[in-house]
Amino acid sequence: MENLVKKLLMNIGENPNREGLKSTPKRVSNTYKYLTSGYNIDIKDVINKAIYHENIDDMIVIKDIEFYSLCEHHIIPFFGKVHIGYIPNGKIIGLSKLPRIVEVYSKRLQLQERLSNNIATAINDILTPKGVGVIIEAKHLCMMMRGIEKQNSVTISSSMLGLFKEDPKTRNEFLSLVR
C-alpha cells in the first residue's frame, strides 16, 4: 500500500521524497489498515461468550455510541452516533459488546444505510430478540468538504426488526428513549 500512496502523492503534484512527506506513505498505510480492520474481525470473537440467559423482557437501550467510518464512494470519513435498542427473548449481551459490534462494522468501507442494517442484523442473529432497533445520526465529510458543501447536515438512518418494525408502540418507546 505504501507504493500506492507514493504514486498518489506524485499524481496530485507532491514529491513523496520531500522531507516532510517521507514518512507519509507508511503512516497512511497504517491508518487505512486500522480504519478498515473490521474486515479481519469475526463477530463471534468479539462477543466472546458474553451472552447471558435472563428472563428480562423490557427494552434495553444504549445510545450515543460514537463511531467513525469511511464512505465507500469517496473513502473519506463519516462519523456520528449510534443508538441501539433490543427487547430480550431469554438472552442478553454484555453491554460493552454492542459498541464493539458497532466498531467491527464501522471499520469497513461503508454506507450509513448498510451500517444500520449490519448492526441490527448482527444483534438479531446473535440474540434472536423480540426486536432490535438501530438509529444512526452522522455527518459525512463527502457532503461537507466537496460537492454540495453543506456543513450542518445530519443524515439519519434506521433499521428496525421484529417488534420495533411491527409494533408502533415499541418503535415509539425506542424513539422517545433515544431523543
Textual characterization of the structure:
It is a single chain. 40% of the residues lie in helices and 27% in strands. The protein is of the alpha+beta class. The strands form two sheets. It has a five-stranded mixed sheet with strand order 5-2-3-6-7. Helix 1 (2-11) crosses helix 2 and helix 4 crosses helix 5 (112-127). The model has no long low-confidence stretch (mean pLDDT 96).
In brief:
The protein is an alpha+beta fold and 179 residues long. It is built from 8 helices and 7 strands, in the order H-H-H-E-E-E-E-H-E-H-E-H-E-H-H.
One letter per element, helices H and strands E, the order comes to: HHHEEEEHEHEHEHH
Q: How does the overall form come out from the CA principal axes?
A: elongated
Largest sheet: 5 strands, mixed
Structural class: alpha+beta
The total count of strands amounts to 7
Low-confidence stretches: none
Gyration radius over CA: 19 Å
Distance between the termini: 42 Å
Please state roughly what percent of the residues sit in beta strands, choosing from under 5%, 5-15%, 15-25%, 25-35%, 35-45% or over 45%: 25-35%
Total helical elements: 8
Descriptive terms for the model:
five-stranded mixed β-sheet; elongated; alpha+beta
SSE arrangement:
Elements: H1 2-11, H2 24-35, H3 43-47, E1 51-53, E2 60-71, E3 77-87, E4 91-93, H4 97-106, E5 109-110, H5 112-127, E6 131-140, H6 141-144, E7 155-162, H7 163-166, H8 168-178
Parallel strand pairs: 2-5
Antiparallel strand pairs: 1-4, 2-3, 3-6, 6-7
Helix pairs in contact: 1-2, 4-5
